[in-house]
Amino acid sequence: MVNGMEFERIKDFIDSYGRDENQYLTELRTSAEKGGVPIIRRDAERFLRVLLEMVKPVKILEIGTAVGYSALVMADTIREIDENWRIDTCEIDMDSAKKAENNIKGRGYKSGIYNLDGDSTVPGLDNSINILVADAVFTLDVLINKQCKYDFIFIDAAKAQYMKYLSGALRMSHPGTVIVTDNIFEDGKVLESHFLVVKRDRTIHDRMREYLEYIAHTDELDTSLLPVGDGMAVSICR
Known about the structure:
The chain contains eight helices and eight strands, in the order H-H-H-E-H-E-H-E-E-H-E-H-E-H-E-E. A hairpin with a 5-residue loop joins strand 7 and strand 8 (232-237). Helix content is 41%, strand content 18%.
């Protein structure tokens, strides 16, 4: 049986075999971590890259842009798969969106910001990486009305809203679409019982438990929960 200390040793051992990111992403990761910006963890990033190489998606939806780090990870991985590749990424904060746009353009990709701000119409999403600024649930409704479909959906935003994000994601999926949900363990909180969690965190805890129960048992998805990063769920639409 593996105890907590042994598990950390296993993770450190695995990390020792990981490849370094390219210099641009290494500097961006360092800057984000120093600034307290939540970005995908190193082992989760490596897993995401391998998964993308296997799935070979052309159209990707990301829920939660932050400074654009994971969008760049995905873009670097899929850019050789199909010349028509596209990533649409949802961000609620305009300042974060502007930082993400600068980081994405700094890597050489065509990017643009669409400030929805209550506007349900979106012009043609003709950039390689499109940043859509509004509440993600509203943005998903806009994309649904636009009849967008995606091959790969990456959810990494407000955990209390994961069920709402999934509802929208499923409406823009097709059989075979892969949905990846990051940070499902909430730094270990989700493993605890409701009453052992600090009171202010119980709503998120309970909603995440509800989310995991749903994706693990719904007939719409085949799901595997993995101890990668802060926990990842990989689901395939039936």
